[in-house]
Amino acid sequence: MPKLILGLGNPGETYRETRHNVGFKVVEELARRWRLGLDLLECNSFVARPAGSADSTASADPEDGETAWLALPQTYMNRSGYAARCLVERFGFEPEAILVVYDEVNLPLGRLRLRKSGSPAGHRGLESILENLRTDQIPRLRLGVAGPDGPPPGPGLPDFVLAPFEEAERETVGEMVARAADACEAWLREGADAAMNRFNR
């Protein structure tokens, strides 16, 4: 069964370093590790095919075995589901074979949470995906981006997630992105339960 790791974020340099784009960062880290180029445009997404597949953009096989499709929707966060549905219809991914990676304002900075299914819990990008795929049985990896005082109250939340990380937070963010990429590889190679046991602590 082909697998897809889908990072959520907003396209363009304006948003590149914001809290809302850590999902993009994780997929880019996986592409770097696996020597894949996110340079195919499919379903309004930048896509990398896994090493060994037809039309793969890999320059060399990764050292550590199996890889997955990677995708970064360029539809803006709230419309991510349109890209996800197109990819599912075009390439035949099953819901349980898609891992969505995105930011979570209700988790402390650096914390990871992997789940096999559930509600979007207010995240508009995941909400769009669940609506378009008509199921909540989509694995997801949430990356904590809350500040030291937690997320700001309602009206300030959009500005918070669309702002860059503070200088003092960036080392923690880099470590979180690396661990999140590790978690994606564990999900891919060992399964969801094993990855949850290792990374949800």
Describe it for me?
- The protein has 201 residues and is α/β, with parallel strands linked by helices.
- It contains 6 helices and 7 strands; from the N terminus they run βαβββαββαβααα.
- It has helices at residues 22-34, 80-91, 124-133, 157-161, 170-190, 192-199, and strands at residues 4-7, 40-42, 45-48, 69-73, 98-108, 112-115, 140-146.
- The chain has a 7-stranded mixed β-sheet with strand order 2-3-4-1-5-7-6, with helices on both faces.
- α1 (22-34) crosses α5 (170-190), α2 (80-91) runs parallel beside α3 (124-133) and α5 (170-190) runs antiparallel to α6 (192-199).
- The model has no long low-confidence stretch (mean pLDDT 92).
Map the helices and strands.
Elements: E1 4-7, H1 22-34, E2 40-42, E3 45-48, E4 69-73, H2 80-91, E5 98-108, E6 112-115, H3 124-133, E7 140-146, H4 157-161, H5 170-190, H6 192-199
Parallel strand pairs: 1-4, 1-5, 5-7
Antiparallel strand pairs: 2-3, 3-4, 6-7
What can be said about the biggest beta sheet?
A: 7 strands, mixed
Order of helices and strands: EHEEEHEEHEHHH
Give me the secondary-structure category: alpha/beta
* Estimated radius of gyration: 16 Å
